[in-house]
């Protein structure tokens, strides 16, 4: 931990929308009288029918409901597009930077309006209606934003599937939300390599008999197979429809999107976000946390396949009439200066990225950064995993030339937007701490028995009351929503994260306390990786845990027991890694596989992950109580054979 404090500079205190006094006053007001606070904040968006009720929430597991602005009506795409046509039709809404630095595009709000309407009309022509689920499997191209906003315009519910996911992962998500339409592209491009998106879709659809329509965006021009009756080219359909489309009137609590995310058990769950509360919260946090002001060029490097891309590339920035940069490529192509070159090229003022990217670039030394100017930068942000103080300090000193505050934003797919973060003009930063809660957010630290801990302490992080951006349910499985988040600590939302609160009341997120891994900022369930491994014909049993990894934050350590008669060979190890890449995604590939003749289990057959975690962490000194194991000798074998010890 670093004990350094980086105070708010006088320039920042003077220019920021929220300074320290205002933060304190508004935070206090937001907890004292949430109804008044949120009634006023919700005026930032245009309502077709104003709401009269602000908040209707119960966290009681027996009567769980979460509703915000419930009798209001709006259209999210109108808020992100149409309403800016009056004041800023010719302002750039989206700057697109291709994988190849020679490719870029600028889309004004006027053009965005036409594109979104056209896309909406194509969806309608393919039979999509209000409430239908549409799967979007696209690379980082403007059409991804058009498609999302087009769904919002006609009241369809989008489910974006990250373009790095495998056919099986797509199929699982398509079937779970019963989506009949898929939007994809011929191919994606990352670091000069092509990703066969249409081919992956075709493969996935062998398992999705309900899909009637595949809309394919032509991006690379690569060859793809088209199935007559089912598949159409987007550009051909778009040429047949008008560039204007009447928006649907949506209730505040109508679903906006589903986004699948990993939990500690079972298959990924469909996190459902609704329209009014989500948009108010995404827009508000984007404005205050990034101190977004008119004319700023803002760049979030996330992928639209993750929640960060939803809230902080598309919905938050566009609701605020911002200029948002969308980057197709990777940080190290064509060179490790790429991020900084893009910042100079487009004069980016606000830059928001993930610690894993910073750690991998940091490894290259200061040279690739220092050869660029970065004078346009004013603010830096971090998201997705704890940022280690070393990376924080490098980001501050080298990337920001010691001039730019860093907002370390803690939040989750479930929370819709940022819950704990410094506001750059109001809150002094400490490297590695997400600092203080956002307006209306009441963090609580509890011990494993559920006792609320006060003052300087550490434990599990809960949130005591609702905020408008909170997820409303797990799609199709409300009981799972209750069981996952509201049973363990009754009356509170349980985040699944551990944290420490210091003497200044600052929060330091320490990572997941459940069986969720965070690999390079990507969330993965240990159960998902295990079930992929077990699906291999030679594998009898598997147990997966995380271990500290210099670049990825966490690496994936898999203990694998083979079927009788199978030999543990180096080839098989490689084969299993390839297998998981293909079954789930390259992001889920195990870093280390240890073949184990047996796994430590209790007498009732439960795998003792605590012990496996310790061994993977190379921490053999304190394996805890092993006396409850059915066969304590397996632990000695596992220690002797820890994979990279040979
Ligand atoms: C972790 C990403 C520490 C955390 C927005 C959380 C963080 C999970 C931070 C959610 C941060 C995210 N500091 N940890 N600033 N941001 N996390 O759903 O463990 O992909 O529970 O949402 O990432 O990941 P998700």
TrEMBL record:
EC number(s) on file: 6.2.1.1
UniProt superkingdom: Bacteria
Segments forming domain AMP-dependent synthetase/ligase: 82-466
Swiss-Prot/TrEMBL cofactor(s): Mg(2+)
Post-translational note: Acetylated. Deacetylation by the SIR2-homolog deacetylase activates the enzyme.
GO molecular function: acetate-CoA ligase activity; AMP binding; ATP binding; metal ion binding
Residues noted as binding Mg(2+) in the record, renumbered to the chain: 534, 536, 539
Acetyl-coenzyme A synthetase N-terminal domain segment(s): 23-80
Annotated GO CC locations: cytosol
Enzyme class label: ligase
Keywords: Acetylation, ATP-binding, Ligase, Magnesium, Metal-binding, Nucleotide-binding
PTM annotation (N6-acetyllysine): residues: 606
Keyword Magnesium tagged: yes
GO biological process, one term: acetyl-CoA biosynthetic process from acetate
Domain AMP-binding enzyme C-terminal: 528-606
Catalytic activity: acetate + ATP + CoA = acetyl-CoA + AMP + diphosphate
Binding site for CoA: 190-193, 308, 332, 520, 581
Listed transmembrane segments: none
Residues involved in ATP binding: 384-386, 408-413, 497, 512, 523
Biological role: Catalyzes the conversion of acetate into acetyl-CoA (AcCoA), an essential intermediate at the junction of anabolic and catabolic pathways. AcsA undergoes a two-step reaction. In the first half reaction, AcsA combines acetate with ATP to form acetyl-adenylate (AcAMP) intermediate. In the second half reaction, it can then transfer the acetyl group from AcAMP to the sulfhydryl group of CoA, forming the product AcCoA.
PANTHER family: ACETYL-COENZYME A SYNTHETASE, ACETYL-COENZYME A SYNTHETASE 1
Protein family: Belongs to the ATP-dependent AMP-binding enzyme family.
Entries under NCBIfam families matching the protein: Ac_CoA_lig_AcsA, PRK00174.1
Protein name: Acetyl-coenzyme A synthetase
């Amino acid at each position: 931990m670093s004990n350094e404090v980086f105070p708010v500079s006088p320039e920042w205190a003077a220019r920021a929308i929220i300074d320290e006094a205002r933060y304190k006053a508004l935070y206090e007001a937001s907890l004292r009288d949430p109804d008044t606070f949120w009634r006023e904040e919700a005026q930032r968006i245009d309502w077709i029918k104003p709401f009269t009720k602000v908040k209707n929430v119960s966290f009681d597991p027996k009567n769980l409901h979460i509703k915000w602005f419930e009798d209001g009506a709006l259209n999210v795409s109108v808020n992100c597009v149409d309403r800016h046509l009056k004041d800023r039709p010719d302002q750039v809404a989206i700057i697109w930077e291709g994988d190849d630095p020679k490719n870029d595009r600028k889309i004004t709000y006027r053009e965005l309006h036409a594109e979104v309407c056209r896309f909406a009309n194509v969806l309608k022509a393919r039979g999509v209606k209000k409430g239908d689920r549409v799967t979007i499997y696209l690379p980082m191209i403007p059409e991804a934003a058009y498609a999302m906003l087009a769904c919002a315009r006609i009241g369809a519910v989008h489910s974006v599937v990250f373009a790095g996911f495998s056919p099986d992962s797509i199929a699982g998500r398509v079937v779970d939300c019963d989506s009949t339409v898929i939007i994809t592209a011929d191919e994606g491009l990352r670091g000069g390599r092509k990703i066969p998106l249409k081919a992956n879709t075709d493969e996935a659809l062998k398992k999705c008999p309900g899909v009637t329509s595949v809309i394919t965006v032509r991006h690379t021009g690569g060859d793809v197979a088209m199935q007559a009756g089912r598949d159409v080219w987007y550009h051909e359909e778009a040429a047949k429809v008008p560039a204007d489309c009447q928006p649907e009137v949506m209730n505040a609590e109508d679903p906006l999107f589903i986004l699948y995310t990993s939990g500690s058990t079972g298959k990924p769950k469909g996190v459902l976000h609704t329209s009014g509360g989500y948009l108010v919260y995404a827009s508000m946090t984007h404005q205050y946390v990034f101190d977004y002001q008119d004319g700023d060029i803002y760049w979030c490097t996330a992928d639209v396949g993750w929640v960060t891309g939803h809230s902080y590339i598309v919905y938050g920035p566009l609701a605020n009439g911002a200029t948002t940069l969308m980057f197709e490529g990777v940080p190290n192509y064509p060179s490790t200066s790429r991020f900084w070159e893009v910042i100079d090229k487009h004069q980016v003022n606000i830059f928001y990225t993930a610690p894993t990217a910073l750690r991998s670039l940091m490894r290259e030394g200061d040279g690739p950064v220092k050869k660029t100017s970065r004078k346009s930068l004013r603010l830096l942000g971090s998201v997705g995993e704890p940022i280690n103080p070393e990376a924080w300090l490098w980001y501050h000193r080298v990337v920001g030339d010691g001039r730019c505050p860093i907002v370390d934003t803690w939040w989750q797919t479930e929370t819709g937007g940022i819950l704990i973060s410094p506001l750059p003009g109001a809150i002094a930063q400490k490297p590695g701490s997400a600092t203080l809660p956002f307006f209306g957010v009441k963090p609580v630290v509890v011990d494993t028995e559920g006792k609320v801990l006060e003052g300087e302490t550490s434990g599990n992080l809960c949130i005591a009351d609702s905020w408008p951006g909170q997820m409303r349910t797990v799609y199709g499985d409300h009981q799972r929503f209750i069981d996952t988040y509201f049973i363990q600590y009754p009356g509170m939302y349980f985040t699944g994260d551990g944290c420490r609160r210091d003497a200044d009341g600052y929060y330091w997120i320490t990572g997941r306390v459940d069986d969720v891994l965070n690999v390079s900022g990507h969330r993965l369930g240990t159960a998902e990786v295990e079930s992929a491994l077990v699906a291999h014909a030679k594998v009898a049993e598997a147990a997966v845990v995380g271990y500290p990894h210099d670049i990825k934050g966490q690496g994936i350590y898999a203990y694998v027991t083979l079927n009788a008669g199978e030999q543990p060979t180096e080839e098989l190890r490689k084969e299993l890694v390839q297998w998981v890449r293909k079954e789930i995604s390259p992001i889920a590939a195990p870093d280390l596989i240890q073949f184990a003749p047996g796994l430590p289990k209790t007498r009732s057959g439960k795998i003792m992950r605590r012990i496996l975690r310790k061994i993977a962490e190379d921490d053999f000194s304190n394996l805890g109580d092993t006396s409850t194991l059915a066969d304590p000798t397996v632990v000695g074998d596992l220690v002797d054979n820890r994979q990279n010890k040979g």
